[in-house]
């Protein structure tokens, strides 16, 4: 163990401010020896969903054990004493990516609490859109909150249910919750998994020699050699018993149609994961194929923005017949932000992560393929770097449609005023980025890549709100905040 | 900030186990620039009350700021960026000594929570004797507990009060609480201080250029140059406003007589502190004077067990006319437990902390004076070391009476079965320790040293339960545990 | 600065054991403000050449400044106080990869010493093949050695030269040295660069606004925006003055023909670097093109072993007309070795770094392309993983010839007895790896990819000894060790 | 082992600057199991001689093992794996106190080097007064220096000797060395101890079950239960064989009279150590007795400046008949320098270490007894603190004579221009300190306390140069520096 005194400095955020938004991955297993070791491996496979913090909780039949750390799974949960530190036959784990205010240990999950009915550890991916309302209601009636996370709201709701079993309390709690989430809980009565009613956030069920496994993505099952069984259905709550039985406490017969998150295909999920029966890698390649059909420029070479643009660029190359080349090399040792020398030009920042491969760019008309364009700042730097390396023309292609609306379900994204595509025309964007042409995949093209179908505008098959503004759930907290603002404005107007 | 990923490993204790018992020190200041810096200095002066962890919370008029660390104040709160890290004009701080299970960051104080009425940070010295009962009741009605500390019980009670001001909620909460405590709280409405009804744990009020200061001991006031004003009365709750007003929300007109803790004089308090108007150093010297009168042996030299035995040894020397010599030297660089070589004798452990000064011991009849004798193991090693250095005789004197009963108010002490004096006669103790004679100060002698008065057995003036078994409060949790055991036994008997 | 007490534990290696072998990268700049910042950026670009330790030395016109750290450049040399910590207008830097016995700080470079003529810091990439002989000679005549590194041998030789200028002392020292090296030195008379007589290890010269820059690869020039000027010639020693003059102290008119290291093309150099006028990426692609021509199997898909196999796989795909797919996904968060669960199969180790992309492998005849095969253990695991993902056939292709001989010039490689290709036929290797077919690029094919020419067996154009056994230098230490062994054997035979 | 990347930042000092001066302690043991454990305990007992860094080297019959750390022995050498980390039956250790420029790991001892004849580790307490001259001579003839420490000079001299055994090489090396030192060396031929010709720095020999032990002070022997045998004689060099034989390679028949350092009695040595047959504690008490005889003021109470003034204050109290009281309390948790609040008075700095015990000071005429007065700044703050606590008069007494001359033998002391007593009359000093009277012990009084004898001015029995200016050795480097300055001045005058 470390000799360094750990510390937990925190600036307590004003409760009227926005909560931290976060991407995360969850994992759980029950009824197996080495539960903590398998959970560490599963979290390692989910590391791309969150690198800021990680935690594991286990239950050994008598006691709970719990560790949380800042940093990577591979730095904290690899030692040979892990089974001693975290004994038990069931476990849940969590990786977390925090986007605001620095990461602090108290917000790292799983959280643990003693509630009526026993101890419960909980790990959560997603965002609850009425969390602030629920929090205010709970505080009003005597609850104390020790963190700013949505997860503590869920814990408080669980604690207030009068149902006999903890899994039933979880069911009661989730009735009040609006939003997008995939949850795993550890109790003395078994491991619980739950997914929001429209299945916005992903959660899959697998088996390792009979032991049930829950994970955000199938790649975590592959890592430990578990077989994929099925996705947890939207709105479903399962209780995984130690003997391997998986009891579906609430069937996923939701009154709302399922709308899984489009961004899992676009960016989040690992390319080797299977989401809704489809290979993420193949879907991304199809996005590139369709993109080429929609917007093929006269050019000499297709170059991906590594690594997220690679599958789409391969598809683009295949469909366009233009050669695919590694025109940009990724530096794997990124580390922290360096101080920049004052005398050296403006593209040094991007060069720390990427470098131009001059040999394949010089004198060429280059098509740069990226998975998406959010703020446009990175695109501008990469285009400049490619030009500096001698490219004759640079045509930028985004393998997803323009992002016009913010997300409220756990994806870190700027406010609408800062979304590049929401505030600029395509021509303005191209000019700002400095490319010779800019094209995005169409929404229909994206749906084709996802499933071969077109978008049903009456009942969209995916949570595509970032591209369409069509949000799958009520946005309670946002609407209340807006109402407050409007009221203030009306007062001002009246006065 | 540290580059080291902090971590928070925890084994979640069985709720049916004993809580962690702890010694602590608290400090608070309101309405002054540099509140965090002054709090750091104040905590440094209280460091003898707890070395395992420390924390500071501040309020800057809009937000709370909060840091907790393992280790010493001087390792965590000395840097020049402290006013930036912890801005604000009011602050509370805490030092903590944990005795069981290793220290973990989540139990370091102040704790912070959002409750109805606003944010509240709380630091606590003492022990609540009905904490387990309250905790069970709270969990029953929907509370979640994220730590094992008594302090979270108080937070939950505060959250459930319906009183309008936070200070009134604190008052409501403390009505339900039995035990010994000194509390400081930080709110947006001011700094709150509270002391248990019999004033068992200490809390004093001072002023620094008009700004109110609360501290466990006067030495913390001296450190920052604050003037001592008065002790917080038993049962009193004060609200220190930012403008310097100290509002006594509940007057200390307790229905129970005050009984401050005798152990503050015996061991805890720093010798330069003033407790109840008396210099701790002088009281300890008087204990030595009386001890000499009660049990002066034929001897050549008086030797203190450093450092806690020094004042009493000076008094013993003065009263007995025997010369005072530093026969035992204390090593200031104690550090961690060393591995012991197998071939070297049995006193190596004690030698790491103390060494015999052979020149003043050889051939002498030595009187060793210590402040108290708890387990007897250290005494045995020191006596052996003094004998090894050539002492002709070793007479051990304890400047406090035999410890016959466990404490339930925050002092770390073994169970009755392990208390040396509770299970051995004085002759058996002397034999086990290996000294030529052994004497303890009488209870009356202790009272004389404290105040010149004798003990009023109907209404003892001090919490002297460790020596007398006369506990000042109900021991709710202990009695319930005992009742459970008795019931189990009666079942066994019946069956 | 870190609060953690740094430490330097070391087991002092038996001088009769083998020295540590190491890969490294060097960088130097002179006559520019922000020399340390530019050096940090340059080292970051060379990070792929060594991740275990890094160091920078600067000279500010009066004093030398020096920092060495374990770990990545991005963890140690990025802070805003770097110009204060390491002031000066000239600097050298080093990244290091240690292969044996754990990394210890004392072996991290640059080394610094006071020698006759002034202070000198030195950073070194390569290996000296008569280092042990020189070391014994130096110790014999009164030298003390405080590390096990070859670099200290060079320092001692520099110290013994009687030449007036430090650069001339370096020249004198290198006269005695046999082997492969690229050196950078920092002195009060300027920055010195030197390359071994056959140019085995690389060193290039660039300019940043007139300031001379030395680096192991051109990618470090690109990082800071410096223009490439030329390679340092084999055997050349340059002195870079603060005013920008580059004085060639010893012209590279070597009596031995240049033989740059083939492995820079095969594996070491970053793909965007230019080595000997050729793009490393393009050369690697040509290796794949030629490999396809030499050994195209009947197959469905070309899959690279990421990331080093990617350019060759692209060339193989282009030449074979078979589609290129990312059938193996690399995990970027590798971290430390995890403990492996006992119940899970044998391929878990490789899955931490790579995962199979089942969608593009299932039912396919797969051609796996890797840059080289050293021990065969990784190949075996990857082939198994690809089979587990459903591949119908797996054909393994190595884009370089079989490695039959060990390296003695700074590349970490096993002894001949452990070299897979040196001890197995191709059929045995294929069987051990478990692939359906196995082919290596021919030596002629490699030469074609390098330069379009064929190998001149009388005067090979490259240091290709690992493939051919044709070593470019004398191996003094190895031969002496062999002679010792032989003599012992002959004694045994005689006896 | 620590996960934290250790680092070794260094500003390389101008060789024309003064070397680091340092206090140190050394320990060695040979021919015993658990050599490293015993050495760690011995160093712990010597921790008062140096707290900045510590190191241990061991030899296991085949290899050397070596660890050095910043910080306390108790933080680095206590773990249960110590015998595995540092195996062997002989060991040497070192604790170090650095006074300038921050401590860096490279200057922590023991140093290790390969020299002709084998490996050698060396630890050193003291200072070599011709080190700079020797260093220049060695560099001139080809030596390289990797640190600024005197110890490396000794290593280089050892390396150049042609004597057959390492102990004879040490003897040859020390012939050229002028100054004050106690050395321990570890070689494959045994443990070597050496003391300068006049025995200025201390070194004692003890036995633990037959195994020879060397240590700076007897308290280190007591710690491990070893019996004291004798002091190493001035000028003596011993070789401790693994079988317990102690061979005196050079008898201490020095041509110069022994002059042990007076400051060991005054300040350095631990009070329970025996130096030259006398208890340090008793000598210090005698200094207080004589001080009272020389300068007893009218006063009410004797108060020591803790902890170093305690024995003299006890002696002063005994001789004067005035009561001894702990008027100043020492804070044991000093830690780093705190930031000071701007609004609080000037004595806060001293309060972090000491606090006034008002109860025994108020209204009293106080005699403050300290061991010595160097710069006067601390005295001024303590006197002010005592006055602030209500003392009616403050009389300061120094238990050693005025310090008028700098030390050149390893004691950290300011230049003559900054020595308080060298630049002020006693009246000026008292005024600057703010005390009512100030007196120092006389040199004759000090001699009486040491041995009962008077000073032989022709052949002083102690190295008392700080008080008398009578240096025991030539000050080669200082005189050469002075000569350089004089020559420059004469040039200036001539011109």
How would you describe what is shown here?
The structure is a homotetramer of 495-residue chains. By secondary structure, the first copy, chain A, is an alpha+beta fold. Chain A has two domains: 238 residues, Glutamine Phosphoribosylpyrophosphate, subunit 1, domain 1 (4-Layer Sandwich); 175 residues, Rossmann fold, CATH 3.40.50. Helix content of chain A is 31%, strand content 24%. Chain A contains 18 helices and 22 strands. The first copy, chain A, has a seven-stranded antiparallel beta sheet with strand order 4-3-5-2-11-10-12, with helices on one face. Chain A has a six-stranded antiparallel beta sheet with strand order 6-7-8-9-13-14. A four-stranded parallel beta sheet of chain A has the order 17-20-21-22, with helices on both faces. In chain A, α9 crosses α10 and α9 packs antiparallel against α16. The longest helix of chain A is centred in the last third of the chain and has 19 residues. Chain A is globular, with a radius of gyration of 24 Å. The first copy, chain A, starts with 9 loop residues before the first strand and ends with a helix. The N terminus of chain A is likely disordered. Chains in contact: A-B, A-C, A-D, B-C, B-D, C-D. At the B-D interface, α1, α2, α7, α10 and α11 of B face α1, α2, α7, α10 and α12 of D.
């Amino acid at each position: 163990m470390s000799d360094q005194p750990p510390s937990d400095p925190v600036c307590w955020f004003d409760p009227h401010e926005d909560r931290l938004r976060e991407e995360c991955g969850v994992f759980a297993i029950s009824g197996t020896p080495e539960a903590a070791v398998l959970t560490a491996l599963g979290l390692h496979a989910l590391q791309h969903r969150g690198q800021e913090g990680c935690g594991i909780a286990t239950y050994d039949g008598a006691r709970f054990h719990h560790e949380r750390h800042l940093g990577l799974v591979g730095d904290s949960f690899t030692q040979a004493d892990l089974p001693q530190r975290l004994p038990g036959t069931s476990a849940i784990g969590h990786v977390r990516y925090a986007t605001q205010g620095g990461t602090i240990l108290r917000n790292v999950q799983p959280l643990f609490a003693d509630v009526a009915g026993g101890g419960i550890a909980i790990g959560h991916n997603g965002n609850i859109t009425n969390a602030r309302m629920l929090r205010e209601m709970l505080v009003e009636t005597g609850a104390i909150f020790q963190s700013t996370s949505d997860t503590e709201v869920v814990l408080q709701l669980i604690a207030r249910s009068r149902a006999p079993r903890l899994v039933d309390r979880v069911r009661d709690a989730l009735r009040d919750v609006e939003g997008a989430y995939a949850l795993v809980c550890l109790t003395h009565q078994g491991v619980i998994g739950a997914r929001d009613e429209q299945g916005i956030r992903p959660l899959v069920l697998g088996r390792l020699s009979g032991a049930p496994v829950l994970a955000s993505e199938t790649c975590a099952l592959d890592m430990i050699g578990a077989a994929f069984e099925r996705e947890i259905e939207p709105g479903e709550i399962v209780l995984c018993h130690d003997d391997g039985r998986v009891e579906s406490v609430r069937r996923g017969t939701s009154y709302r149609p399922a709308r899984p998150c489009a961004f899992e295909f676009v960016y989040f999920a690992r390319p080797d994961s299977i989401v809704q029966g489809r290979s993420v890698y193949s879907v991304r390649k199809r996005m590139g194929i369709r993109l080429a059909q929609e917007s093929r420029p006269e050019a000499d070479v297709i170059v991906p923005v590594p690594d997220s643009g690679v599958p789409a660029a391969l598809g683009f190359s295949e469909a366009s017949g233009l050669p695919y080349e590694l025109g940009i090399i990724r530096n794997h040792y990124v580390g922290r932000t360096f101080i920049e020398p004052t005398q050296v030009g403006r593209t040094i920042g991007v060069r720390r992560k990427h470098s131009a491969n001059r040999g394949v760019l010089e004198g060429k008309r280059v098509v740069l393929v990226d998975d998406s364009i959010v703020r446009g700042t990175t695109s501008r730097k990469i285009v400049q770097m490619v030009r500096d390396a001698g490219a004759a023309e640079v045509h930028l292609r985004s393998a997803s449609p323009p992002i016009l609306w913010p997300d409220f379900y756990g994806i870190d994204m700027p406010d609408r005023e800062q979304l590049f595509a929401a505030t600029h025309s395509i021509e303005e964007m191209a000019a700002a980025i400095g490319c010779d042409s800019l094209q995005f995949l169409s929404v229909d093209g994206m749906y084709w890549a996802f499933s071969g179908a077109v978008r049903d505008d009456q009942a969209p098959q995916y949570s595509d709100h970032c591209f369409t503004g069509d949000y799958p759930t009520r946005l309670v907290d946002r609407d209340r905040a807006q109402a407050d603002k409007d009221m203030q404005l009306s007062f001002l107007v009246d006065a």
